[in-house]
Amino acid sequence: MGLMHAHMRRPTAQLLSTLDHPNIIGYKECFIDTDESLCIVTAFCEEGDLFNRIREKDKAKENFSENEVMDMFIQVRQEVCVS
């Protein structure tokens, strides 16, 4: 990413700390790593993320129910409207 680019992204990452919504993971801090990458520390997501839920369903050869999909859609839509 490059050090200058990482420093330019830092204020954008810190903006996450101002977001307060139950469907948006909590922001803790950000820092520039030794390889000049911008690292963002977030709260622990106890139930995992959407990607892991999809992988688990795929591994079990199961599909999401219509209600599960609708719940996820509503949560994503709420997150986008907050941002």
Notes on the protein architecture:
With 83 residues, this protein is α+β, with helices and mostly antiparallel strands. It folds into two domains: 1-44, no CATH class; 47-83, no CATH class. It is built from three helices and two strands. The longest helix is centred in the last third of the chain and has 17 residues, at 66-82. The two termini are 24 Å apart.
Helix and strand layout, with pairings?
Elements (H helix, E strand, L loop, with lengths): L2 H13 L11 E6 L5 E5 L7 H10 L6 H17 L1
Antiparallel strand pairs: 1-2
For the structure shown, list the relevant keywords.
2 domains; alpha+beta; 83 residues; 2 strands
Quick structural overview:
The protein has 83 residues and is α+β, with helices and mostly antiparallel strands.
Distance between the termini: 24 Å
Mean pLDDT: 82
Sequence of secondary-structure elements? HEEHH
Structural class: alpha+beta
Radius of gyration: 16 Å
Q: Helical proportion?
A: 40-55%
Sheet with the most strands, sense and barrel status: 2 strands, antiparallel
Task: Pick out the low-confidence regions.
Answer: none
Main sheet strand line-up: 1-2
Name the overall outline. elongated
Helical segment count: 3
Assembly annotation: single chain
Please give the number of β-strands.
2
Number of domains: 2
Measured by DSSP, the beta-strand proportion falls in 5-15%
